[in-house]
């Protein structure tokens, strides 16, 4: 059984670096295709499309209010690691497009690649006691203080987010976006063991 508390600082650092890089790469694919996703990253992407603001700063600022809940729910180590992961994704998502480009990328293939990259990123972060903050933390807080399960809270948030996306983007783009989010969630569902890593 793997406990994130047994990892060395170096192991945590490389896990968070990997997770941050893969999450940022997924965002590069997503935004190149004009797609959206769920959770806090999806909200940041949607805001960036609607306002023209860069994803990185929006994602970083959106997550700021959630760290207090993360501290209360998971403690200091989780909160510090999550802050580091979010900061890394915010910076790398701005830097990577200068070094990565796509001459040809079909939306369906891009959606699947995004889902795999983001899913593996979150698996790495979960294994090392971190996350990408936001909605997941709120969902767990709601679960602690009500009869609503965290999964339903996250699903409800994503349903609202995709409904808003339908008002801003065309249905085909939202459909490809849903495919990407589905793949990411399947990667996590099939590979993440909450009893072995963190309850997030």
Automatic annotation (TrEMBL):
Major localisation: membrane
Alphabetic keyword roster: Cell membrane, Membrane, Transmembrane, Transmembrane helix
The keyword Kinase is annotated on this UniProt entry: no
Protein's cellular compartments: Cell membrane
TM annotation in the entry: 15-35, 41-62, 74-96, 108-127, 174-191
Highest taxon of the lineage: Bacteria
Pfam families, per database record: YitT_membrane
Bilayer topology annotation: Multi-pass membrane protein
Protein name: YitT family protein
Source organism (scientific name): Ruixingdingia sedimenti
């Amino acid at each position: 059984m793997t406990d994130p508390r047994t990892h060395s600082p170096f192991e945590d650092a490389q896990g968070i670096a990997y997770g941050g890089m893969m999450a940022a790469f997924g965002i590069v694919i997503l935004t190149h295709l004009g797609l959206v996703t769920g959770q806090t990253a999806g909200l940041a992407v949607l805001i960036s499309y609607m306002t023209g603001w860069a994803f990185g700063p929006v994602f970083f600022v959106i997550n700021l209010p959630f760290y207090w809940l993360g501290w209360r729910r998971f403690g200091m180590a989780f909160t510090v690691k999550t802050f580091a992961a979010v900061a890394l994704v915010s910076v790398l998502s701005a830097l990577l497009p200068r070094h990565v480009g796509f001459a040809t990328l079909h939306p369906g293939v891009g959606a699947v690649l995004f889902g795999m990259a983001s899913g593996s990123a979150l698996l790495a972060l979960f294994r090392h006691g971190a996350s990408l903050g936001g909605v997941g933390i709120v969902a767990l807080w709601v679960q602690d203080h009500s009869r609503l399960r965290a999964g339903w809270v996250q699903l409800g948030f994503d349903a609202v987010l995709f409904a808003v996306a339908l008002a801003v983007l065309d249905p085909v783009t939202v459909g490809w976006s849903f495919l990407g989010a589905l793949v990411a969630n399947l990667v996590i569902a099939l590979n993440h063991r909450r009893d072995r890593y963190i309850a997030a």
